[in-house]
Design a protein that fits this description.
By secondary structure, this protein is of the alpha+beta class. The chain is built from 3 helices and 6 strands, in the order H-H-E-E-H-E-E-E-E. The chain has a 6-stranded mixed sheet with strand order 2-1-6-5-4-3.
């Protein structure tokens, strides 16, 4: 077993590599960051790795996705419909216990959709603030994502600032 500070550094690197793969739209790299049934010793002869409920994912506003096939399809769909995405991770906290690691962070996301018809430029850029919890498992090939849960951070309503009644 490696030293605790080494584990934390390795998990941080795996977390960063996952987000970088999504930014590049590299489906193979995104896939390689997720656990497979064989990573957990599940015999793939009897369990279809695409349908096995080994992994789970919640994107902001989406229902829970379970199984490697559903999760990877969601990333393929997101990457196919997003011309540009960049993650600025802040408030990153890593906790490692044995072969399991928990990463919490804030995803400061900048994304752009397709250009308006007939325009070659990127569509308007949109910013979004999301908090995420990523759970990793140690495998012989390194740390892999077991679960990703992301929720939007709701912006404060300016109207709420002056609602207090003076006493």
């Amino acid at each position: 077993m490696s030293a605790p500070h080494t584990d934390v550094e390795q998990v941080e690197a795996a977390n960063t590599a996952f987000y970088e793969a999504v930014e590049r739209g590299d489906f193979e790299a995104v896939s390689s960051h997720w656990l497979t049934p064989s990573d957990l010793g599940i015999d793939e002869t009897y369990h279809d790795p695409a349908d096995s409920g080994v992994v789970s994912c919640v994107h902001p506003g989406w229902p829970v996705l379970t199984g490697r096939g559903e999760v990877l399809r969601s990333y393929a769909l997101i990457m196919a419909n997003t011309d540009y995405i960049q993650f600025f991770l802040t408030d990153v906290h890593v906790s490692v216990t044995g072969d399991t690691a928990l990463v919490t962070c804030t995803e400061n996301i900048l994304s752009g959709g397709p250009a308006p018809e007939g325009d070659e430029e990127l569509g308007p850029l949109v910013g979004q603030l999301v908090v995420a919890t990523n759970v990793f498992r140690r495998t012989p090939e390194g740390w892999k994502m077991w679960s990703h849960h992301a929720s939007p951070v709701l912006a404060e309503n300016d109207e709420d600032d002056g609602d207090e009644t003076p006493s």
